[in-house]
Amino acid sequence: MASGESRLRIETLDTVTRIEFLDRNILDEGNIQQIGAEVSAVIDAADDLRMVIDFTGVDHLSSAALGALITINNKIKGKNGQLRLSNIGAQIYEVFVITKLNRLFEIYPTSDEAIKSFT
């Protein structure tokens, strides 16, 4: 990790790992790489992975951040895990629709709904 300071809040709720971004704008390549490395470490350490990535408070994502999400999704699926996204604001959701990523990811209005979708 570049700065040694986490860009994420990671918590485990029962059998679900919930990740929330600490930054409002996920645009900087260095931060995106750090986020990818942190999430990859969580994925590598888990056996039966069920993850929710919560976008509460995130205003902007770069295309590199979208690419990192796709990589994370593929890595989770490679371990037979499941990924859900939640709390995506209208502006960012529009980008998901334009890029058709709303078809790739399971997106829920709240993290509670995303967590409940696993059961």
How many helices in DSSP terms? 5
CATH class: Alpha Beta
* CATH fold field value: Transcription Regulator spoIIAA
* Low-pLDDT segments: none
Structural class determined from secondary elements = alpha/beta
Query: CATH homologous superfamily, by name?
Result: STAS domain
Helix content: 40-55%
What do the pLDDT scores average to? 93
Radius of gyration: 13 Å
The portion of residues forming beta strands comes to: 15-25%
Biggest sheet: strands, sense, closure?
5 strands, mixed
User: In one word, what is the shape?
Assistant: globular
Question: Care to give the gist of this entry?
Answer:
44% of the residues lie in helices and 24% in strands.
Features:
7 strands; Transcription Regulator spoIIAA; five-stranded mixed beta sheet; 119 residues; two-stranded parallel ribbon; 44% helix; 5 helices; globular; alpha/beta
Question: How is the secondary structure organized here?
Answer:
Blueprint: E1 8-13, E2 16-21, E3 25-26, H1 29-45, E4 50-54, E5 60-61, H2 63-78, E6 82-86, H3 90-98, H4 101-104, E7 106-108, H5 111-116
Parallel strand pairs: 2-4, 3-5, 4-6, 6-7
Antiparallel strand pairs: 1-2
Helix pairs in contact: 1-2
Structure description:
This protein has 119 residues and is of the alpha/beta class. The chain has one domain (8-116): Transcription Regulator spoIIAA. The protein contains five helices and seven strands. It has helices at 29-45, 63-78, 90-98, 101-104, 111-116; strands at 8-13, 16-21, 25-26, 50-54, 60-61, 82-86, 106-108. The strands form two sheets. It has a five-stranded mixed beta sheet with strand order 1-2-4-6-7. A two-stranded parallel sheet has the order 3-5. Helix 1 (29-45) packs parallel to helix 2 (63-78). The longest helix has 17 residues, at 29-45. The radius of gyration is 13 Å and the shape is globular. The mean pLDDT is 93.
